[in-house]
Amino acid sequence: MYPNILSLISFLIFAIYLSIGIYILKLSPESKLNRSVFILSVIFAIWAFAYTFFYSAPDQASAWFWYKLSAFGRCAYPAGLLQIALILTRNDKIFKKWYHYILLYVPAIFFIYETVTGSFTGPGLVWINSQWIDIATSWWYSSYMVYFTVLPVLSYLLIWLWGRRSESPREKKQGKIIVLTAIVAFIPGYIVNAVLPFINIFVLPSIGQIIALIAFTGIGYAISRYKFLQMTPDIAVDEIISRTTDMIIFLNRRGEIVNINEQAERILGYTKKEIIGTKWTVLLPKEHIKPVERKIVDMIHENAPEKQYIEMDLNYLTLRNEKIPVKMYFSVIRDEYEIRGRLIVAQDMRQTEKLENEIKAKEKALDEKEMLMKEIHHRVKNNLTVISSLLSLQSRYIQDDETKSMFKESQNRARSMALIHERLYKSDNLKSIDFGNYIGDLASELFRTYSLNNGNVKLNVDVDNEFLDVDVAVPLGIIVNEIISNSLKYAFIGNKKGYISIHFHREEDKFVLNVEDNGNGIPENFNYKNSDSLGIKLINSLVEQIEGKMEVKNDNGTCFKIIFKETVY
Question: How far is it, in rounded angstroms, from Cα 147 to Cα 150?
Fold first, then answer.
């Protein structure tokens, strides 16, 4: 009697396998993993379908036919399971092409061939205890038992390790479901289908394809419950809505709330059960309800493409009657015939308002600091101008030319620094100045100081508009002041005509400053590195301060070449 019952059960199991496989494939047909699960469902279905007729086969010939057909399921199932485990745990990188997966099925193909040709089974099928039994004694059968054991164990071991090591709670849950259902199915199935026949105990019928449904159902449940083998548009929408940081509220045509996301629950303090079915205006203060509804009615009646939504700044009321500032976007959901519902997306503006207030406070403090810095530069410039004026005034009472010259040089140095602070005071950038522009103004100022606007000495300026940090610009300005002052004082004695050229350019990550003249030149035995001249000593010291290098050449005049890198302070 029970062979007929087993046949019926096996046929039902066959239908369930195919149903689950087709369902999973429909969830995401393009998914490699979903396709592999469908293939495994077909493998199990072949096994179950063949055993539907194997259980109730009237003679040995019929039993042999269905038993051999079942081999296409029984022998292929371990390889199909391993394929799913490799894809699920992302260990399938070795299979770069689809046909590489055939390698997994080589042992299965071999065992199917041995079963179909008959060399596998040994003595053959025997009717014992109202059932057909395969009395297999060959060493091929022992090999099949190893294959039938190792591949499933390896598959579930990979899934268990994947779930255990994963940082995702979802993946941990998935791995646990698949492994636990596999253990429930694998242990009794292995005992009935492998262990007992191996020791020649034939009390229970072979029901491996029936028990395996437990494991396969576990995979199906993990797919439908945790959605890890698919990414359909509906699931994508659900995930986006649940993870968004804005409040999302769905309304029906009557303006009643039909759903809210988790963020809306958290901010407003309502649960879905408490708020679903109520009018959405329960979230608004009474004084806002009529103006808001009027705007919504106007938007709906206009029905213009540019009026797909309206934006409003409002206060929402929480369950505790607290007011929350929000920016609300209200839109309608239409199909080709009518309005089907309404959608509200609302941003909690509390943190935004807090940040805006902090930014305003910091901007105010920054403006105050900038004003203070400008005032400091202005005062420094004024003080340097006063010093320059005092030196000029004091020099009028000095009769000695050499001492008078020293006062004049000090006056020029103070003026060169004052010019920088004046530019910083007038600039929006309080940390750096346009040094190329500054050099031209400084040189012109020096020409006026030494009264050389008579046309005998020409000034040539070829500079790039490069911005330098004030900590570099000040010493470099004094250097330029010293070099030009020396040229104007000594290079053109006796109304000699000539020129002074200034070149300032960037070369990759370096700046190059050349100041040259075609005047009398420096003495041949002059050593600028060990000079007693205060001006030269000052130049050497300042070049070292900006971490630069200086070369001095005497060829038809004097040329100072200073190379330095851009320094970040």
Answer: 5
What three-state secondary structure class fits 553? Answer: strand
Reported as a single tens digit per residue, the pLDDT across 551-560 is 888 878 888 8
3-state secondary structure of 304: coil
Q: Which residues contact 53 (CB under 8 A, 6 or more apart)?
A: 7, 62, 66
Does the pTM exceed 0.70? no
Closest CA to 210 of 513, 5, 473: 5
Q: Is 34 exposed, middle or buried (0-12, 13-18, 19+ CB in 10 A)?
A: buried
Residue 13, pLDDT score: 92
Closest CA to 521 of 499, 492, 549, 550: 492
The vertex-202 CA angle with 192 and 123, nearest 5°, equals: 110
Question: In angstroms, rounded to a whole number, what is the distance separating the alpha carbons of residues 119 and 175?
Answer: 39
For 330-380, the DSSP string reads: EEEEE-SSSEEEEEEEEEE-HHHHHHHHHHHHHHHHHHHHHHHHHHHHHHH
pLDDT digits (tens, 9 = 90+) for 388-445: 666 666 666 676 666 766 666 666 666 666 666 565 545 555 467 777 777 777 777 7
In the structure encoding, which two tokens stand for residue 156, read together? 């579930």
Quote the CA–CA distance of 380 and 431 in Å, as a whole number.
Answer: 15
Q: Tens digit of pLDDT for each residue in 69-78?
A: 988 998 899 9
Q: For residues 532 and 220, what is the distance between their CA atoms, to the nearest angstrom? A: 93
pLDDT of 17 over the 90 cut = yes
β-partners of residue 259 are 250
3-state secondary structure of 134: strand
